[in-house]
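Notes from hallway chat w/ T.B., transcribed later so I don't forget. T.B. wanted the structure written out for a chain they're using in a teaching module, and asked if we could keep both sequence and structure tokens in one place. Agreed to drop them here.
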Amino acid sequence: MELFFLAALFVLDVCTTEFILVNGGQEMNAVMVGIVNSSSALHLMVKGAVLAMVIATVYYANRVIKHSGTFALVILLGWYISVIFHNLGVIFL
């Protein structure tokens, strides 16, 4: 369930970021500037690749140390929730 929620947050991040960019905003993440400014498809592919790596890491970590991947996932969920709220603040405020 948590992984589905994380995937939904990744999609919301891409959608809200693209909306901000189309309406004259700027990407604030220095690592993502070149990717986001080049193409929406590339942006989505990079986020998809990161999501796949996160999922693999969570499963691996949980096998090595019980619940460690789940703990990291909860922290990541909190981070992406804050990213979505930031993007929504940029859009609506």
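Follow-up for T.B.: Residues 40-64 form the longest helix (25 residues). Might be a good example for the class.
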